[in-house]
């Protein structure tokens, strides 16, 4: 038997809707709502076995949407000997009715049907160690975002007061000195001092965390992969570890396009009849990796085509000629694509996204050994 489904209710974080579907017929056996715990779900399965003696030796599959509970419930169920899968939300197929009438019970039925008919993709379950590294990289990224927000708040604050920095580049030593010397008094002066204190604290924290990422990338578990990725222009330790920590096994993607789709960097489609219409990128994937890939592409396209700075040469030092050649080939191709699309009049952000998609394909090739 397959299709025992638990639909997680993200609004409460406390309950799951259970729908039991018989694999052979798709008929609903039992529905109820219980606490989101492995023991309660095990009790639900035992209740079914008590109702149907013929199902005592049946194989049960529990599945739920990827979401707020992460992998913890899945691991707890597996520890109890219950097979469990996590479904990629973006691949779940639903009836048109579900777009008009939606509730937890209908969602549970829909997911149970998807499991029973093998209609959706299953999420890769990382090991606890892999998940811990991914969580750490997300935390570092959140600190980076926090620093960005503080910078925006300071810029907005001084602009409201009528001050405009006369220099070209902000957040340089000259800019910081200018901020500290502004002629303010009272609570405006106190406000700016607090802002600058928060800025220094956030900046120091981020520098400390980024140094820890550099040390992490030299761990024997990650060094080989990280060193290969750093051969690309635009990829340093943080981006490399973000890609590794959120993927680990690149071989589970059978093509470069499949990896790009996992990042949500492939265009969507809204076609009907003989009319084909591509839409913007799907964004159905790992948002942290997609953001890292876009930032890497933005850094990659800067400067002259084919030029390699001292920092990039240092990162490539000691690597094989094949690895360096593949990385340089990918970098040059991305740079040429950037200028080609810009010359066509395509908007800058759209060009960067297209380059990020191309970049992700080269990353997949590097990580899977498809470099020839």
UniProtKB/TrEMBL annotation:
Keyword Cell inner membrane in annotation: no
Keyword terms of this UniProt record: Coiled coil
Biological process according to GO: DNA transposition
Record bears the keyword Mitochondrion: no
One annotated GO molecular function: transposase activity
Record domain Transposase IS116/IS110/IS902 C-terminal: where: 228-301
InterPro entries assigned to the protein according to its UniProt record, in alphabetical order: Transpos_IS110, Transposase_20
Coiled-coil regions listed: 192-219
Name under which the protein is recorded: IS110 family transposase
């Amino acid at each position: 038997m397959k299709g025992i489904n638990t639909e997680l209710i993200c609004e409460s974080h406390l309950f799951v809707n259970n729908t039991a579907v018989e694999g052979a017929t798709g008929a609903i056996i039992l529905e109820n709502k219980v606490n989101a715990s492995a023991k309660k779900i095990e009790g639900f399965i035992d209740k079914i076995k008590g109702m149907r003696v013929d199902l005592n030796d049946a194989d049960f599959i529990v599945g739920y949407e990827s979401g707020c509970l992460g992998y913890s419930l899945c691991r707890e169920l597996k520890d109890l000997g219950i097979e469990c899968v996590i479904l990629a939300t973006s691949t779940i197929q639903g009836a048109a009715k579900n777009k008009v009438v939606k509730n937890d019970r209908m969602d549970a039925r829909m997911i149970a049907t998807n499991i029973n008919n093998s209609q959706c993709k299953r999420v890769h379950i990382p090991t606890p160690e892999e998940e811990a590294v991914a969580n750490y990289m997300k935390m570092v990224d959140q600190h980076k975002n926090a620093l960005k927000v503080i910078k925006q708040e300071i810029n907005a604050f001084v602009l409201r007061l009528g001050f405009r920095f006369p220099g070209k580049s902000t957040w340089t030593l000259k800019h910081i000195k200018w901020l500290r010397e502004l002629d303010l008094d009272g609570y405006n002066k106190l406000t700016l001092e607090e802002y600058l204190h928060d800025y220094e604290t956030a900046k120091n924290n981020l520098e400390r965390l980024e140094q820890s990422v550099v040390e992490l990338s030299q761990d024997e578990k990650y060094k080989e992969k990280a060193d290969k990725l750093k051969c690309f222009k635009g990829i340093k330790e943080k981006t490399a570890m973000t890609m590794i920590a959120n993927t680990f096994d690149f071989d589970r993607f059978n093509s470069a396009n499949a990896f790009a789709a996992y990042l949500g960097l492939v265009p969507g489609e809204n076609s009907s009849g003989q009319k084909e219409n591509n839409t913007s990128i799907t964004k159905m994937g790992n948002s942290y990796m997609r953001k890292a890939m876009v930032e890497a592409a933005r850094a990659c396209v800067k400067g002259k085509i084919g030029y390699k700075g001292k920092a990039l040469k240092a990162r490539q030092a000691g690597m094989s000629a094949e690895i360096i050649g593949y990385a340089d080939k990918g970098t040059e191709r991305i740079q040429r694509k950037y200028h080609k699309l810009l010359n066509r009049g395509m908007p800058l952000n759209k060009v960067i996204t297209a380059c990020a998609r191309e970049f992700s394909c080269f990353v997949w090739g590097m990580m899977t050994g498809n470099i020839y």
